[in-house]
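User: Teach me something about this protein's shape.
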Amino acid sequence: MSSSLGTLFRISTFGESHCKAVGVVIDGCPPGLSLTEEDIQPQLDRRRPGQSALTTDRQEADQVTILSGTENGRTLGTPIALQVANRDHRPADYSNMRDIPRPSHADYTYQMKYGIRASSGGGRSSARETIGTVASGAVAAKVLKEKYNIDIIAWVSSVGEIDATDIDSETITSADIDKSIVRCPDSNATARITALVTELKDLGDSVGGTVSCVIRNVPPGLGEPTYEKLEAKLAQTMLAIPATKGFEVGSGFAGSRMRGSQHNDPFIKKNNRLGTVTNNSGGIQGGISNGESITMRIGFKPPATISLPQDTVDFSGEPAVLEAKGRHDPCVVPRAVPIVEGMAALVILDMALLQESRMALQFL
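Assistant: First, the predicted structure itself:
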């Protein structure tokens, strides 16, 4: 079940980068939710290729179709199937790479695992597969907003050596983020990132970066002890996104340099409940949400497919020079923002449903 995620709100994605369609089947969505394609499409528009001069030139509208699970704009409680057609796929662009594993890509590992692979566009290892995550995540986010008023906001916080500064995670909105072509709410950083990515696209090179995410209005109690800790599930899913290489929650690695007297989050009374003065814990303590905003950062490596000549070897071990063709992102983080939001929504909703089931039968 390597293409499935979740326990009570469960998804299974399907499709490769250059097949006829990609999509997802959602099982466990509550009945009676108002849901149409218009609820899902905005997030897919934020993820789709060809949305600006800084992304891949592949042109896909990524129009979603709800195949099942709704009637008259309401969910039935039955499996919801969502599909997006692949229209601008060009397998021929990859013909010269059929016998050469691309450096730092999944060509070699997929070939070794299965004895066969989709040689065009990376198959299941392509970011094209994340359409299912974004589409189902949009459904999960709608449930979370209507049931708990939970907001999930992600943004580009760095590209290469360029860092965004002065971002207030408690007030930032999606509108603030989408004003920037690179989804970075710092205007100075946006200008520098835009110049860098433009230069690298012209050179045929690539660069990595980080996406930050805040989940606001999360009730305390979400997450399971030991092996199903909330931060562990978030880390698992975030690191399942293509090109990810790192995950931090709260103070992250910076916390390892602090003393306990600096890092501890003292409790105070907030809005008739306990809250914390600081939030180095990132909204999670003991693997369970504490009611504060959940904050995290995800690191993305430079896209592996670049147009510059690379000295490597083919599958037989013979020397080869690879000059990748096709259409590729010089930096994935602007398009990764809705993917991060989708993954977060899937985890939080599944944990919320688990907590609802736990609270339904108590003897306290």
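Now, about its shape. The first helix runs from residue 37 to 47. The chain has a mean pLDDT of 93. If you'd like, I can walk through any region in more detail.
User: That's plenty for now, thanks!
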